[in-house]
Specification:
The protein is of the alpha+beta class and about 200 residues long. It is about 40% helix and about 10% strand. The structure holds zinc ion.
C-alpha cells in the first residue's frame, strides 16, 4: 500500500472538474494539497468528493478540508518516529522543517525572504557577502574598553579584555543582556551605533 497519495479510483481528474484545472492552472491531484485546492474543495462538494477518493488517509482529508497544515498519520516517520505529517505532501512535519528550518525573527514569527532581496542582483549581493565572510574580511572599531568586529553578513562580536568580556555573536543574546551591559558601560552603545544596530 503506498504511503503517500492514493492508488484507489481513477488517477486523473474527472471530466466534470477539468474546468477548474484550466481556470486555475492547477492539477487536482492529491500529491500536493495546497490551500487553493482546499478552498476549491470547500466551495464545491464534487471537488471534495474527488479528493476524498484520492487521499488515502481520512485524517489527512479531514485536516485538508479544515484548512489545517498537519495531521496525525497512521504511519510513523521512518527517520524520527513522529506521526505528525504535513497535509501538503504527507511528509514528516518535524523532519521537513528541520531539514529546511524556518527562519524566525527575534519575536518568533516566521521571517520571509526579504522582498528587497528577491532579485538576481539581491541574490548575487548575498553570495558576495558570504564569499567575503569566508575569505575572512572583517571590520573593527574600538570605543573605550570595547572592540567591536563586524563581518560582511552582519555578525557583530565584542571583545573587552580589560573587563574579561568576549562575545562571539551579539545577536544570539537577548535584548535585556545587551541593555544591562550598555547601562553599565555606555561605550558599548558607541560600538552598537558604529555597527548600525541603533
Ligand atoms: Zn520524521
Amino acid at each position: 500500500m503506498p504511503r503517500r497519495g492514493h492508488a484507489v479510483g481513477p488517477p486523473g481528474c474527472p471530466p466534470d472538474l477539468q474546468h477548474y484545472e484550466q481556470r486555475f492552472s492547477v492539477r487536482l491531484s492529491a500529491s500536493k494539497l495546497t490551500k487553493q485546492k482546499g478552498m476549491l474543495a470547500r466551495a464545491d462538494s464534487a471537488v471534495a468528493e474527488h479528493f476524498r477518493r484520492r487521499i488515502r488517509e481520512p485524517a489527512r482529508f479531514d485536516a485538508f478540508l479544515a484548512g489545517r497544515s498537519s495531521y496525525a498519520s497512521d504511519t510513523p516517520c521512518t527517520r524520527c518516529g513522529s506521526s505528525n505529517r504535513t497535509v501538503y505532501c504527507a511528509s514528516c512535519y518535524a523532519c521537513q522543517t528541520s531539514r529546511r528550518p524556518l527562519q524566525l525573527t527575534s519575536t518568533g514569527t516566521v521571517a520571509a525572504w526579504p522582498p528587497a532581496l528577491r532579485s538576481r542582483a539581491g541574490w548575487l549581493a548575498l553570495c558576495d557577502e558570504r564569499r567575503r565572510e569566508r575569505s575572512g574580511e572583517r571590520e573593527s572599531c574600538t570605543f573605550g574598553p570595547f572592540t567591536g568586529t563586524t563581518t560582511p553578513t552582519g555578525k557583530l562580536s565584542i571583545d573587552a579584555p580589560a573587563l574579561g568580556l568576549r562575545i562571539p555573536d551579539l545577536s544570539r543574546h537577548p535584548f535585556d543582556f545587551i541593555h544591562n551591559i550598555v547601562q553599565r558601560h555606555p561605550d558599548l552603545l558607541e560600538v552598537l551605533r558604529w555597527a548600525g544596530w541603533t
